[in-house]
Design a protein that fits this description.
heterotrimer; A alpha+beta; B mainly alpha; C alpha/beta; A: alpha+beta; two-stranded antiparallel ribbon; globular; B: mainly alpha; 12 helices; 72% helix; binds ligand MGD; binds iron/sulfur cluster; binds molybdenum atom
Chain lengths: 198, 349, 750
Amino acid sequence: MSKLRYAMVIDVRRCIGCHACSVACKSENSVPPGVWRSWVKQGEKGRYPNASVSFLPTLCNNCENPICIRNCPTQATYQREDGIVMVDPHRCIGCKYCIASCPYDVRYLHPIKKIVQKCSWCYHRVDVGLEPACVNSCPTRAMTFGNLNDPNSEVAKLLARNAVAVLKPEKNTQPHLFYIGADEALIRATGASEEVRA
Amino acid sequence: MNDEMTIVYNVAHEAPLGPLIAVYFYMTGLSAGSFILSTLAYGFGIKRFKPLGKIGVVLATVLLVLAPINLIADLGQPWRFWHLFPYLNPTSPITYGSFLLTLYPVNCLIYAFFMFKGDDRMTKLFGLIGIPLAVSVHGYTGFIMALAKARALWNTALMPVLFLVSAMVSGIALMILVVTVVGFLSKQRRPDPTLIRDLGRILVGAILLDLFLVFSDVLVLLTSDSEAAEAATTILRGAFSQYFLGVEILSGSLVPLLLLTAPTALLARFATAFAPPILGATLVYVGAVPMLPLGLPVMAASFIPLLVQGIPQRHRPLPAAVAASVLVMAGILAMRYVVVIGGQYAPLS
Amino acid sequence: MLRSARLTRRQLLKLGVVAAGMATADLLVAKGVMAEEFVRGGRSVSRTTGALRRAVPSNCAHCAARCGILGFVEEDRLVKIEGNPRDPNSQGRLCARGHAGINRLYDPDRVLFPMARAGRRGEGKWVRLSWEQAYDTLQEWLRELQTRDPESLIFHAGTEVSSLLASRFVAAAGSKSLIDEVRLREASRETANRLTLGTRSEVVDLAHTRHILNFGSNPYETHAMYLPFVQRLVDARMSGAKLITFDPRLSLTAGRSDEWYPIMPGTDGLVALAMANVVVQQNLHNRQFLSRWTDLSTEQLAKQLAPYTPEAAERASGIRADDLRRVATEFAHTRPAVAFAGGGLGQQKGAVDTQRAVILLNALVGSVGVSGGYCPAPTYELSEPDPMPPPLPDSAEAIQRVEALLQGKGSSGLYLTCLANPAYSWPNSQAFRDALLDEKRVAYLVAIDTNLTETSALADLVLPASTYLESWGLESPPAHELVPYVALRQPIVRPRGESLSVDDILLTLGTRLGENGSRYFPFPTVQSYLNAVLAKLPGLSAAGGLSLLREQGVWYDPAASPRYYAQGESFSTPSGKLEFGAIAAETAAGDGQTAGVSTSSGSSSSGELTLIGYRPNVHFGDYSANCWWLSEIDHDNALLINPVTAQQRGIKQGQQVKVISSVSTIQVKVRITQGIHPQVVALANGFGHEGVGRIARAEAFQSEDPMTPYIWWTKQGRGVNVSALLSGQDGGPGRGLVMADTRVRVEAMG
Ligand SMILES: Nc1nc2c(c(=O)[nH]1)N[C@H]1C(S)=C(S)[C@@H](COP(=O)(O)OP(=O)(O)OC[C@H]3O[C@@H](n4cnc5c(=O)[nH]c(N)nc54)[C@H](O)[C@@H]3O)O[C@H]1N2
Ligand SMILES: Nc1nc2c(c(=O)[nH]1)N[C@H]1C(S)=C(S)[C@@H](COP(=O)(O)OP(=O)(O)OC[C@H]3O[C@@H](n4cnc5c(=O)[nH]c(N)nc54)[C@H](O)[C@@H]3O)O[C@H]1N2
Ligand code: SF4
Ligand code: SF4
Ligand code: SF4
Ligand code: SF4
Ligand code: SF4
Ligand SMILES: [Mo]
């Protein structure tokens, strides 16, 4: 079996747009007002009475080929063996270049600590065998987390069985966050593009 | 509101790179431009530019000592700036910068030392060493933009060249102003008209090159993917169009071109009289109030040549060149602002 | 055995689940080693030290679902709330509101000691009292009341208050007036269920259904049993069940449904009966089920339903008759199929009968009390320990008393609010505020509350209540696995400041009610009271009683199997069958109101629009506005209006408009949306606070919470209070408070 590679799959068909994931994240990671590790975009389309709504939960893709790491001048941003992209809070100088570089706008400067933070896939939970806080909270189990390279993991099975998309594949960041059933129109409307992978 | 998607919920992100970064880019650009001008005489032996040598190196050094202050002040953790050295990351353009920003001023100092000492051979040596450094110190800021792959407005191979050419443009303009002021303060009590004229000619060339690059950049953006087109729209028609079209292109490039190449002295005089108010009004109109503290003194200075009576016939280009330089400097500052802030305007997600 | 596949797998997982304060060493994996299967909750670790946190099971009070929670505690501070994986309903999950309990507990605007007013009512000047002084004062007022007119005590309990102790207190004090917000607002559904099924609540067995009709509920965002309901709804849809929603507004549920039918408010009854008519006409009804399990006969039905044609329904509701026929036919052809209703019609005039029309639809296709159908909710009857004071009458009397008060025709010797905020949330909230301010109408106003709300800020005496996270409580929520269970609420941390739980306060006050006090309040502590309630559940007592609940949070009989009535057992109605007799008679009488048709809907010649309120998904009730995790997501509201309607009035996107109803006028911005019926406008509940706290008012400020200075939506503002526009009235016996049918004019401003 190949090496451990964490991945997340969000089955948007299951998503109810409840924001539990993002509030769980605020709680778990003490994220201040005005900045987000994760949030749930919501859009409305169609004409009355044929209108509908779509959701797109958004967080760091913990990319395989992360531009944030490439551009960080102090190696404060780094990738763990399991693929999680981290920020060393003692190393970061708060230059914000990584924020400017990330094509997904998922990093922020902590307004009090003045260092950059982002979703860490709750490594502190994952390391002791707990699911990330958002995954753990998601009422409808739209979110799944696990080892991409273990064919028996839930994420691997979901990827094997469904057409999935990643955001902005053309940026060659190789996201580890995959979407099932995401609404292309919402992805486009919020400044991203998607690649469908069967 | 029709078949399009209407966003009902999304979050707004603060632009990570603020005006301090634009000012930082501006100052490194001025520094690089000044340095290169100073080497025209001492590095390349073009004698008539000899007066620029000392002025240039002083400007280059002073600006380059000041510039990184902006950068450090912008850090979330300014006291950790030293992390840039021991923890350097060879793939990060900021890391290149850390070293360039150290080496370049040191070289400037040595270069200046020999110049003031009168050692022409050593001056030439360090002048020539300094040129690639000056090019890099500003070019790397272009790479900072270009390599942050997120932003369509930045992510272009033209960016470093664009930054360099605009650095030259602003550097020449600054030089014209400084030469003018130094000239009035000198024993002759007036600047050397031929020097100003020659600088004015180089400035025209630089502006034309800059305009060509900007034109190519925007054209490619417009015809590239939708994200790029959106970036182009932001500066052409959107929130930053006034800075871009108004301050950078119109008052920062086209009006100066007119001033510098105006066929009749009368037109030049006329245009000169109106240039500062135009600039002031533009700044207020676009709400570029943060730029006023910078712009106002320079603008005021530009009136000096008009106030000085009895400028002989052959000195007529002087006021026009000064006015053009003021406008150019404001234009390039606007360019930095448009690129840095405007580039982050379109939401990524 | 519980039956869903999910639960079975969960039970396996449960082996790895640690409950309250147990083992610390048995974490599954060491750092860096891959976990084959992650633990689904039950544990939490410190982000800084990695140490396992102590877990206290309890339940959430932010909606009626009462999901099981685990409060994780570090050094006596609640640091995280997660779902309790043992809870059979919510299965260890939590919604956004559930997490935000922490915001409430550590709300910087909480009232932390008893206070008496020092200036005029509502002036905002207070003196601090000791609890002893506060109790003495209140005892004095209660005694005064007893000698004059004990019936003029009005006790107004909010959604979080257990009505058991409240009614004991009211009865012991010699009054009949308990306003229980939950019972009041759910009255029509509960009445319909009780009359028809014999139980108060229903459980929709979504996990096993294939076709779902939704009349005016919004399970993607609200629903009284939010999480347990929507989890099973989404599972059903993932396995192919179809969801059809009737709602005047594109709620998130409507927007994700397979079909959305924008319906004129108040016409659901007509639509349901027309569909019933179609089913019977086409002979698609389940005769066997009808004759075995209901009091209906086909012949009688056909006759009674005849006037309810799809065409008539189309005229009132705006939904095309063809669509109604198709939906009805499809509903009857797909098995199992189920129809349910929600708060959207709960507040209509004919809501009881509308609700019964929906139950009728289910009965026609044999879908009541069966797998995949509309089922009487299995719960344990938690009954009050003896001795019991005489039971209180129907709430209609209490509502009439309040209405008289509002109209200046009545008075109250003592108005006691308990975690309720009527000066903000009662229809025509301003009138309520005026009444409370008037010392002639309300002699004494006492508030038990956590915050200075629009109501408690007016009080003569404020008693600081603790939040649900510092309180006790016992519930048996409608069991969505159809095996009844009991859920405990227990203090996760000690009450902040000098605050006390509502139960503590009522038990103490009870003892001060003179003779009745010593008779009906022989409980020295809340725990002793709960023990007395639990003593009536022998199964639980045998399993360990209160101490078992304190450790696990929930209890159910492991040997029990899902309870479907129509698969053997008879219904709890007097006849053991579903009883429609009454509704059939009433609807046959053709009374528009009883059929769920409000008389004014439909016509729009006057240019008036119907205003509906709705609940945004991240907010609960009226007071979550002071929780910044939630208000950050949603902090203001806009009037939803259809583009056609907006254009007729020259209204542009985002513009300010005046909304004029019979009771008030407010100014608000619009959001023009394709997602609303052209004759309807909608405003979200819960915004526009003057009270409750500074976050609710969209202020940024320094406090013990380092985050409050960073509140960033101060410019967007706090929105407006929809209750100011609504007019309400007593719906009649068993019907609670009715407030649909608010007609408004909408005018563009400057
Ligand atoms: N987020 C959140 N969830 C909650 C609560 C909360 O405050 N916030 N409170 C809890 C409580 S106390 C209750 S009672 C439940 C209620 O929960 P639900 O039963 O889901 O009821 P509501 O959210 O009141 O309304 C549901 C929908 O009815 C629509 N509607 C309005 N009028 C009509 C009508 O005449 N006909 C039809 N067909 N639809 C109509 C509204 O647009 C709305 O989308 O929610 C509980 N859950
Ligand atoms: N327009 C409109 N009005 C409605 C409804 C509607 O759909 N539309 N729905 C109705 C329904 S179904 C219901 S159940 C009722 C609910 O109405 P209410 O029972 O009045 O409940 P809430 O409005 O949820 O809040 C009641 C009070 O609880 C207090 N409270 C309790 N604990 C805390 C705490 O820890 N922190 C804070 N800050 N406050 C606390 C607050 O002071 C608040 O004033 O509303 C009804 N009102
Ligand atoms: S999403 Fe952005 S921040 Fe996250 S790993 Fe990729 S590039 Fe880095
Ligand atoms: S802000 Fe911190 S993490 Fe980001 S690039 Fe700068 S040093 Fe690296
Ligand atoms: S994985 Fe953890 S840090 Fe990342 S979004 Fe989810 S809760 Fe937040
Ligand atoms: S918690 Fe799950 S269902 Fe809710 S918004 Fe997030 S992904 Fe969607
Ligand atoms: S559904 Fe209701 S009870 Fe459950 S967590 Fe959400 S607010 Fe609390
Ligand atoms: Mo309710």
